[in-house]
Amino acid sequence: MKILLTRISAFLFCFMICACNNEKITVYHTWNSLKKMNYAENVQPLSEEIIPYDFFPWAGIVSHHILAHEYIDAWFHRLSMMRKPKTFFIISPDHNKLSLMPYSLTTGSWDSGFGLVESDTKKVKEFSRLLDVDTDERVFEYEHGICDLMPYIKKHFPQSKVVAIIISGDSEVNTKTCNLLADILEKEFKNKRKQDNFLIISSDFSHKGDLKETFINDSKSEQYLRNVAQVPWNIVNCDNRAGIYIFNRIRKIETESVILYNKNSWEISGQGEDDITSYFFVYFGEK
What we know:
By secondary structure, the protein is an alpha/beta fold. 30% of the residues lie in helices and 22% in strands. The protein is built from nine helices and eleven strands.
């Protein structure tokens, strides 16, 4: 049985409060604001790859399991040394199957434990219009694919805002739904070295396998993550295949990758040898 931290975020509750000026503001709690775990100043683990000095990251993959806290923190820390994005566009799967629409959006904020992470409300409303969906704060109350990342964003990027997007559905990618979002996002990342945006694919990888199965699944995923221009995206084994598909649609032929870490829950915890979740921490960019 996997230790509690691999599941704890699935049970976090988020709450709505009202602000002054008669305007209702949705504020979601996070594991750090609820003190589910102490946010320690961790020693940064050594990178598994060297990041080229002229590498410009505009997208990346990061875990949403706080069991991997040390590596999530290190991923955001290293990113902060290379970039200071004004807006993070975060794509998360709908873990709890609460969304009644193809996409869920929110204008809410997140209590990170270090202060509020605010939505880029102007951009959220623009996406709402272009995607033809209303905002749905209810879906975000329990979505750890979004909430779990907010303490790291506030710590390392205190001025940044977010556009949080939850894509409904399961592992079968709805290409029509994803193509529309990809077309809209592509405009946000057209001139990658000149824009202030960063795309986060919130994802964990191989689930519920033993060591052998996890190794096989991760080996396939790594083939794509190391060579996105030549390997098909659909060999990736993760819980956010829609996010991978969308990234693959908007990347350029010259897009390169850096795999900062590849870890799994058994390596980190020493528990759950027959119920493993794996993690890739990746930057995508151009030289």
